[in-house]
Specification:
Layout (H helix, E strand, L loop, with lengths): L11 H8 L3 H9 L6 E2 L5 E2 L2 H15 L4 H33 L1
Antiparallel strand pairs: 1-2
Length: about 100
């Protein structure tokens, strides 16, 4: 089940209002591979609350002078660590429940 933070339901205009970023900057960050919005059947971008948080982190790093390639590398590492952690937790939970039977 997808958490509410991960559901892609927010339009780019609302994201722009929430973050203070221009539509062009948001699209640019997508082009650079820093985030991947969902798309409706008609191709309209939809973002999640997690995407909004990511955009805020990106904006902060860009203000500090960090290049988009460096930001992408860091985001990729964080994502990989999160996936590994989630898999480990699932494994521990599964092992715990199997042992009780």
């Amino acid at each position: 089940m997808t958490s509410f933070k991960e559901k892609k339901v927010i339009s780019i205009g609302i994201v722009s209002e929430l973050t203070g970023l221009t539509l062009r900057k948001i699209r640019y960050y997508e082009e650079r591979g820093l985030l991947a919005p969902g798309r409706t059947e008609k191709g309209v971008r939809k973002y999640s609350f997690a995407d909004v948080e990511t955009l805020m982190k990106i904006a902060e790093k860009r203000e500090e002078g960090v290049q988009t390639a460096e930001i992408k590398e860091k985001l990729t590492k964080e994502s990989n660590r999160r996936k590994i952690r989630d898999e480990m937790i699932k494994g521990q939970i599964n092992a715990q429940f199997r042992m009780r039977k």
